Amino acid sequence: MPSITQLARAELRDLIPYQSARSIGGAGEVWLNANEAPTAPDIQAACTALNRYPEPQPQQVLAAYARYAQVPAENVLITRGGDEGIELLVRAFCQPGRDALIYCPPTYGMYAVSAAANGVSALTVPQRANFQLDLPAIAHALDSQPVKLIFICNPNNPSGTRLNRADLDALLAMTRGRAIVVIDEAYIEYSAADTLAGELPRQPHLALIRTLSKAHALAGIRCGFVLANPELIGLLAKIIAPYPIPTPVADIAAQALSAAGLAQMRQRVADTLAERAALQAALQQSPLVREVYASAANFLLARFSDGPAVFQALWQRGIILRSQENAHGLANCIRITVGSHAENDTLIRALRQLEQTP
Ligand SMILES: *Cc1c(COP(=O)(O)O)cnc(C)c1O
Prior knowledge:
Layout: H1 4-7, H2 10-13, H3 21-24, E1 30-31, H4 59-69, E2 76-79, H5 81-93, E3 100-103, H6 110-117, E4 121-124, H7 135-144, E5 147-153, H8 165-175, E6 180-184, E7 206-211, E8 224-228, H9 230-239, H10 247-256, H11 259-285, E9 289-292, E10 299-304, H12 307-316, E11 319-320, E12 322-323, E13 333-337, H13 341-356
Parallel strand pairs: 1-11, 3-4, 3-5, 5-6, 6-7
Antiparallel strand pairs: 2-8, 7-8, 9-10, 10-13, 12-13
Helix pairs in contact: 4-10, 5-6, 7-8, 11-13
This protein binds pyridoxal-5'-phosphate.
Pyridoxal-5'-phosphate binds near residues 35 and 83.
């Protein structure tokens, strides 16, 4: 008799699920491992009529996000976090066992996980040493297999890099009529001028991933968006779950996207950018650190002389960071979320102590 596992789809047996910051664990007071905002927004949840199903795509949230992103409402799909947008794109465009997708490590882990979970082969085209795209290698990969999707993260997680606009334009030209280019803009509020939302009228094969989890400080509600042209949005809408956005989530998202909510968000981003500059300067002064990379997001990537030792020593002090030891080309690197002033200060003081211990 086959075991339950043997009955499952073959690609799931070997699947290593996404290692989220929360699933890795840890114990302590200072959590700088998940790129969350350090404080929660001021929100009043007033939910009524929970006996009724929610609107499949809550109109108020759709209209508010469209206004915020400066696109027509027909260009927006609301999803359960940005992660559901990634999954829907893979399911909509890649036929299991036949089609491929491309992603460029070191980058966000969900592109590989969604590919594997759906039996889609993932071609990796590593970034160049400066964390920019390797366009000739991407062109080569496009020709080698039936590639339907290319995932690009801008600003990139975990490096914090802003990608060159000319490279993104070249990528869009190279893929037109062949593959969908997905730009994951989860951190775009920290580098707002870099959005490609303004390109949507000209680029039918462009899709953007957005989220309320980072700058909007609402990781707990699981709310994200795909921005694309109506033809592409319509395909994703065919396969999304019937009522993906719970009524309380829609209520909270609408408040966050109100004028007052957006003003709070912009202040939070400004505070984070000031804290990031101070944290970067402090890290650069540490003899334990070899390099701190330029960041356009709410985190910093730092290369230490002995990354695993620093990561462990801080973990034991209850300061939980995100090791990048196993990411492509990132030996001895640690990703550090920019926290509150107090959290960053605790981190810096702990590093100063480690510098003293021989
Ligand atoms: C955090 C993140 C997301 C999406 O997060 P959700 O919480 O699912 O909205 C997507 N892409 C990148 C690069 C991220 O860092």
